[in-house]
Structure formats: structure tokens, C-alpha cells
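Each lists chain and fold; for instance:
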Amino acid sequence: MDKNKAELERSLGISGAVALALGIVIGAGLLVLPGMAYRLTGTASIYAWIMDALLVIPLLVIFSWLGSKFPKADGIAGFVRQAFGDLGGTVTEVMLLGTFTLGIPAIAIGGGHYFAYAFGAGQVTALVSTLAILLIAGWFNYKGTRLSSTFQQWITYLLVFILVAVAIIGLLWGDPAQGGGVAPPSMWTHALPALALVFFAFTGFEMLSFTAEEYKNPRRDYPITVAISFVIIVGLYLALAWVTQTLLPQNHPDLATAPIAAILTSIFGGASGRIIAIVGVLIVIANVNGATWAASRLVFAASRNGLLPASWHLVDEKSHVPRQAVVATTLIFLGSACIYAIHWFSQETMLQLAGQNFFLLYVFSVLAYIRLVQHWAARLFGVASVLLCFFMMGTFGWGLLYPGALLLLGWIAVRMKKNRMTREEKEVPESPSTTL
């Protein structure tokens, strides 16, 4: 294989893809968001999880169609580029880069907190652990897709099994008198402020789209992968959100940083909490590993499309991996974690901004679907999905300034790209005419 050939190996089947999907989606969403949402909206927080789960179903139906129809490494950006041209695709790439830059390091930060909780350590240990998680994920992805996929598959299935056990233990042996309980359904509107925050837990399917180019049979396997992983994920989320708010008080000191560990500590004592904290770190490593895989493919595709340095879309001859894109992605994530360390952003703010951005990217996908689909009934379904999305966007508030800035930056990038291409065309000397 030519080392400079910008093509990825087709090696993913359904089993590996489902493990990758679970590893990408499950992470900070499962480990910290149940506690954050409960602290924010009280006993009504469970309804935010239910509303987001229902809201994401039509989006995933559309996403599955797009992913099977256009299986390319640029994912959502490729869908939008197919529908609206280079302007739409480049703007979407910039928004994705800005979103990953906050969201994936925030997941690693959650793992750092769990590691510090396990050993009773402080913020320095949490930060060092965060950086270590990002470096481990970068190393696995640098070494090759086969190694990363094998690690992802075994660790994800094991951890999902453990987390199901945690939910069952909490439901059967926890003491409901310690928690706040569940508000009556009539109070569902109290959960609206947590919608954007909780939606981050349902992000990751859009990152899965960046791996579609590596499926053995994307038209068949991509929709099946999305459906299977969604059912597993929703079941876990609702069970653990329920256990969190029924077994922990709203003022628990570890509610926003290590709620799952705090649940087991309340049942079995401190040792069990430390064990589950280690499990939490492993979940985050798997999560960041999958997310780094997806994000590096976005960087690879953005380079191939001319937005990022050209060398970043080179594919290594032996590993079949865009190693320079992996290195660049890992360095960007490490930089974001360091910015968090100097208190420019809180983890909650990073998750909230990333969650709403991912939601807006789903909206972009729906608009692309409406443009690309042929049947009128499918277009009507897309329009109904967009209207449903507008309802949720009304809860975002000031946070919409961030994606607005990214959209502007994307537009500037497109203008600069066009100006550069125009200059290059003018610099090419005209071929001398031949006189007969």
C-alpha cells in the first residue's frame, strides 16, 4: 500500500462496531451526568433522561440512513457537504472540531476524578490521571485499528455487564430513605433546564459516523449497530439515573463528581466505592479510546478536504492508521485539559456546551436528510424532527453563543480556502500556444 494513500481499511463487523459505539457513548454521561442533573433539577431530573431518549430516536433513524448511504470518514460533515456543498461541510467540520475539543477532554476529566476518588487523592492526582487517560487512548489509536478495536470490544462488554450489576444492586439493596425519590410526572417541566446537560449522555452516535468508512458492510451493519447500542445505553442510563436520585441526597458531596461510586459506598461501605471508581476509570479509558478514534478520523477527513494541514491525512503503511491525525488529536485534547486545569472552564460547562453543540449537529444532519431524501413521507418525517429540535433549542440560552462563534469561524475558513485556491490558480503559468 502507498503510504500516502488516503484510504482506511474496512475491518469493522457488527460485534466490534457495537462495542465501539458503547465505548464512545458510555463514559462521562453515565459516570457524572446522573448526579449533575439531579443536583441541577432535583427529583424531576429523571424526566430529562426520558425526554432526551425519546427525542433522539427520530434523529438516530435519520442518522442511520445517512451513515449507511454515505459511509465516509468525515461523518456528519460529509452528510452536510453532500447536501449543501463545501460551505456547509467545512462549517460543520469546524463546529465538530470545536465540540470534540471540549467534550472528549471533559470525559477524561471525569475519569481523573474517579481515579482520585478511588485513592482519596486531590486535584493534582485527578489532573495527572486525566492526562494519562488521554495519552493511553492516543497510544492505542496510534498503534493501530485492530489493537484499538480488540481492546474496545473486551473492555466495553465487561464494563457494561458490571454496570448492569451496579444498577441491580442499587435497586434491590439500596436504602430509598437516603435519597430524594422521584417527582410525580406532573412536574416534568422542572427537568427542562437539564435537557442540554443530559443530552451529552446521548452524544457519540455522531462520532460513530466517522468510522463508517471502516465498516465491512456499512449499508447493512451501520443501522443495526446504532439500534442495538441505543437500546442497551438507554436501559443503563434510566436505571442508574433512577438509582442515583433515589439513594443519594441532593446535597451529597460526591454527587457531581462520582455518583456511581457514592451509591455503592452508601450500600457496602468505602471499599466498594473505591472498586467501582476503578471500574469508572476503565469505562472512561474505553470511552476516550473510541472518541479519539472517531475524532482523529474527523481530523483526517478535514485534512483530506483541505481545512487542516495536508500531512494529517497520510495513512501509515503498516498500521493502516492516519497516525499524524491521531497525534494532532491527542495534543489538542491534552491542551484542553490543561486549560481546564487553570480554571478557564468547569467540567460542567464543557459538558453542557459540547452537549448542545452535538444536538445542533444532529439538527444539521436532519437538514441534510431533508435535502437528500427523495420520498415525500421521509421529508415530512425530517421536517417533524426539526420542529421537535427547535423546542429543545429554546432551553439552551447563552450557550448558543459558542456554536455561533464556531459557525462564523467556519465561514471565515471557507473564504480563506477559496482565496488561497484563487491565488494558486493565478500563479500557475499558462501553457504557451503552439503556432502551426
